[in-house]
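Progress narrative, work stream C.
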Amino acid sequence: MNSDTSALRKSGLISPATVVNVRPFSEDDAPKWDAFVAECPGATFFHRTGWKRVIEEVFGHATHYLVAEADGAIEGVIALGHIRSRLFGNALISCPFAVYGGAAAVTDRARRGLEEAALDLAKNLGVDYLELRNRHPSSAAGATKDLYVTFRKALSPDHEENMRAIPRKQRAMVRKGLKSDLVATIDDGVDRLFRAYSTSVRNLGTPVFAKRYFRVLKDVFGDDCEILTVTKDGRTVSSVMSFYFRDEVLPYYGGGTEEARKWKANDLMYWEVMRRAVERGVRTFDYGRSKVGTGSYSFKKNWGFEPEPLPYHYQLVKAREVPNVSPLNPKYQLFIKAWKHLPLWAANTVGPWLSRNLG
């Protein structure tokens, strides 16, 4: 039991004798759900109900949102998406297209009830497995996989202190970017972001999401979804979409054109996100998920961030082993190499059909 739960029980708001009921989410629950997520210590940006609309509207997948409550008060929530693909399997995931998920709860009983209900649902749906993308370990039975880590760091209100906290070599890259006559601006539209992002993911051999996805994210999350674009002499060089949640910022979808490395545009871009976030009162910079041993993993470590393991939790239903839907899987290597050589227009045409099933 965490300190927040103890305080709630002492205040009389949570009774140990009360039975917790786990039930499906209804649209009338949205205000209470989001208010709970805003206060629950274990909740993340990806637990917000807006993701339900994004997953259903953009990707066409079914969602199953569950509420744990007692005496009419919410004690926990879990957001689940059902991803069915002939290529990548059949899974119930919390949360798909997100780096964090699992049950967000203020009591152990609510967490257990939600996890048990999620497994029951997975069995009823006949999926291969249930995946809970926990940021913190779960006591539920099942398997974990040490593939991903996250990078989070506290920010100072003082910009110079944040600059000094960046290791010397990386700090030099940021300063070069600052001297390269680059211009960083906030975008209302997604066109420049999509140009930079689609170029980057094609070069990595990864299918791109549809441009519509980014439009819907902006529409659903408003000012909590911000696009910062870096230009050189009017040309888009790099761009990133960041999510804001409480006092945290999470740069989530970013990329750069062929010029980005030359002008140190990505280095400047992330510094600008950090600097502007501090101006908004943000105190935690979340660099997000990376696979151990990849280029993005090294890039984030170079900024002075230490990796924190992500204990993703798997419970097998029809599958016999924990899935390995990762670009590091050897069976995808030929596909990745071929994808890198596709013309950008072709990658942007075919990519959305594949990426919608990756979850």
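Work stream C, second folded protein:
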Amino acid sequence: MSGNYEEHANEALKRFAEKDPAARYHLVNAVEGRRIERVLDLGCGAGQELLPFLERYGAQCVGIDIGDELGRVTAETFGGETRANFVRSSGDRLPFAAESFDVVLCRVSLPYMNNRATIAETARVLKPSGVLLLKTHSPRFYFAMLRERLPSMNPKMLAYPLICLAAGVWHSVTGKQLDKGIWRGKEIYQTHAFLKSELTKRGLRFDGRLPDDNPLTPSYRIVKATGDAVVSALGIILVGAEYVS
């Protein structure tokens, strides 16, 4: 598991470095014209998606992930950069003060998290008028995975997308996520209807699609409603999380 995390993070960083400028900066371009001081990345991996916000805005960038290798992987990406910090934590219990961030990134990490709790926590830490840049897995993602793996006739490879689809159906029907036994660590899909319902409850609304949007992995710009902001004078407050860099 340890090696898989580091391998995945480094591969993601390599792919990011190979992107053309338009693709590399499409997230930072989605918030152009705004004052961006603090950015949070949920399920940050190597933290590569934070780099453009650091480069263009000089923003204070914070990444969270649950991998034990988080500090080692991100140190290779950011070196001694003091404006980039990483915390070992999960999206369903964010260790930050309310209304701490101008932008939250959640790029295909929601499928691995408790969906309702993570959306609620994201809304809590976003400032009024803050932006969530969300990319998810639709049900079609797992059907495509199943079609791709079918020629192998490998039971283990075929079981994974089927388990994820079953977990997604259970979640859609019951509102509960399975997280024990074979379900532990498995993904679930997100439908547009589910997202709209949960976002609306938390004062968030869809505000368009991003350039990397597609039927398998929809990509959204989401905005928090304006309200009376009561921001802690202490700024970002860490509570019960492991600060790693």
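The chain is about 40% helix and 20% strand. No further action is required on this item.
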